[in-house]
């Protein structure tokens, strides 16, 4: 039996098919319109990543310690030079440098070699016109340092590609170099960029500026004083730190000589008599010894097992105060014996020894404090006057600051803030 289709069903089927076709066409229009919009954006927009100029380093009074400026420099690839003598003559003729200096650079080195940094634009243009094999010009930036003699070990340096190698330049390289932005500019119908475009105003053309807690004048004074002291005492090296004990702000950090990059943070040494302050603080805090209590009878010697410890100079009987004033080793040994190794060890740790101060400088050392279970009687005695352990100059300065401010161990601070000079905003504010 054959069933006939209902006329209404056929009409509905046709309508449904027609709607489906119309819907598909509309989707196609939407897709095509989005494609056209994208093409329009590509035609009326220009994307670029501006070359970043390295940010500056400034002192607490906004005086420049390190800065960069764009330059054109002349270089050579010695391996690509056909005739080295002729090359040197051509460059001398153009006024790049002397024949001897150029020839030395070509013959004495391999690979990319600078011949003249920050050369005049006219000179670079002349070099380009000559088309000397192996010689070219490069648009780069050059780093300059103010009062370099006083800041060298602290600020650090950069490599030829302007990447931080040491000091502040290394620690804050990410901020100083900056992160390249891809900026989209609007174009006119003729392909010109709109002047005053908001995108251009927001583009980053340089890295962030780093503001130090250092005072340039105090740094200069500290460095000159240290230099004279090293010379007068025929010392091999020295370090000086000036710190505000209330805030931990480092106002000066100068070093001279030594194999270390920055002796203030990475040099570990036996502190000697300067450590007697820690022994005294432990005794006073634990009340093991009173200030007017006799701690040295005037014999100027004390026996610890098989060892005899003596004072450098003869003196009469000394109370605790007198032993500290006269820097008596024997007196401090007796104070340490009354205080006990557990209490003294605890206070040494409380003053931050054996741990990094976490200052924002690279390669900081933590020093070395022997474990308490290794403290035999003679070690307790020698540690009381600063022998048998190692510290850094910054650890000592931080410990003395804690005594000066009433007992607060404050993290030392070398950087105050990081600021974006382009956007005029503070990126980071260092807190203690």
Characterise this structure.
With 432 residues, the protein is α+β, with helices and mostly antiparallel strands. It has two domains: 57-188 and 199-212, Penicillin-binding protein 2a (Domain 2) (Alpha-Beta Complex), CATH 3.90.1310.10; 236-414, 3-Layer(aba) Sandwich (Beta-lactamase). 39% of the residues lie in helices and 19% in strands. The chain has 16 helices and 15 strands. The strands form five sheets. Strands 2, 3, 4, 5, 7, 14 and 15 form a seven-stranded mixed sheet that branches. A two-stranded antiparallel sheet has the order 1-6. It has a two-stranded antiparallel sheet with strand order 8-9. A hairpin with a 4-residue loop joins strand 14 (415-420) and strand 15. Helix 2 (84-94) packs antiparallel against helix 3 (99-108), helix 11 packs parallel to helix 13 (329-339) and helix 11 (276-286) packs across helix 14. It is elongated and about 95 Å long. Mean pLDDT is 86; it is low at 190-203.
Concise account of the structure shown:
With about 425 residues, the protein is α+β, with helices and mostly antiparallel strands.
Low-pLDDT parts are 190-203
Annotation field: number of helices: 16
CATH top level assignment of the largest domain: Alpha Beta
Q: What would the CATH topology of the largest domain be?
A: Beta-lactamase
What does the radius of gyration come to?
A: 35 Å
Q: Assess the beta-strand content as a share of residues.
A: 15-25%
Strand-pairing-aware structural class:
alpha+beta
Shape-level CATH architecture of the largest domain = 3-Layer(aba) Sandwich
Report the average pLDDT across residues. Answer: 86
Q: Roughly how much helix do the residues carry, as a percent range?
A: 25-40%
For the biggest sheet, the summary is: 7 strands, mixed
**Counted beta strands:** 15
- How many structural domains does the protein architecture include? 2
Q: Name the quaternary structure.
A: single chain
How far do the termini sit from each other?
Answer: 96 Å
The coarse silhouette is: elongated
CATH homologous superfamily of the largest domain, by name? DD-peptidase/beta-lactamase superfamily
């Amino acid at each position: 039996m054959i069933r006939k289709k209902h006329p209404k069903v056929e009409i509905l089927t046709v309508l449904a098919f027609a709607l489906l076709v119309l819907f598909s066409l509309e989707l196609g229009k939407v897709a095509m319109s989005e494609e056209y919009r994208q093409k329009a954006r590509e035609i009326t927009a220009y994307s670029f990543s501006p070359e970043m100029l390295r940010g500056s380093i400034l002192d607490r009074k906004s005086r420049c310690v390190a800065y960069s400026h764009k330059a054109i420099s002349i270089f050579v690839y010695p391996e690509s030079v056909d005739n080295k003598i002729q090359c040197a003559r051509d460059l001398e003729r153009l006024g790049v440098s002397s024949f001897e200096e150029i020839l030395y650079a070509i013959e004495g080195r391999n690979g990319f070699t600078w011949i003249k940094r920050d050369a005049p634009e006219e000179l670079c243009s002349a070099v380009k016109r000559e088309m000397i094999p192996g010689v070219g010009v490069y648009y780069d930036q050059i780093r300059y340092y103010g009062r370099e003699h006083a800041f060298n070990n602290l600020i650090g340096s950069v490599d030829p590609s302007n990447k931080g190698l040491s000091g502040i330049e290394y620690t804050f390289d990410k901020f100083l170099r900056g992160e390249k932005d891809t900026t989209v500019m609007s174009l006119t119908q003729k392909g010109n960029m709109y002047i005053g475009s908001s995108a251009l105003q927001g583009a980053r053309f340089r890295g962030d500026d780093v503001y130090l807690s250092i005072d340039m004048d105090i740094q200069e004074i500290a460095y000159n004083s240290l230099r004279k002291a090293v010379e007068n005492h025929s010392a091999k090296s020295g370090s000086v730190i000036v710190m505000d004990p209330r805030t931990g702000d480092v106002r000066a950090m100068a070093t001279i000589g030594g194999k270390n990059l920055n002796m203030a943070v990475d040099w570990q040494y036996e502190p000697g008599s300067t450590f007697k302050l820690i022994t005294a603080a432990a005794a006073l805090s634990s009340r093991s010894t009173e200030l007017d209590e006799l701690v040295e009878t005037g014999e100027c010697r004390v026996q610890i097992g098989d060892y005899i410890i003596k004072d450098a100079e003869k003196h009469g009987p000394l109370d605790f105060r007198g032993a500290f004033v006269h820097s008596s080793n024997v007196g401090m040994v007796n104070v340490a014996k009354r205080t006990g190794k557990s209490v003294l060890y605890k206070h040494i740790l409380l003053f931050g020894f054996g741990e990094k101060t976490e200052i924002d400088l690279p390669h900081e050392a933590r020093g070395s404090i022997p474990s308490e279970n290794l403290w035999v009687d003679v070690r307790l005695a020698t540690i009381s006057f600063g022998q048998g352990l190692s510290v850094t100059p910054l650890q000592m300065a931080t410990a003395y600051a804690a005594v000066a401010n009433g007992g607060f161990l404050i993290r030392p601070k070398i950087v105050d803030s990081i600021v974006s000079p382009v956007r005029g905003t503070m990126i980071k504010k260092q807190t203690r």
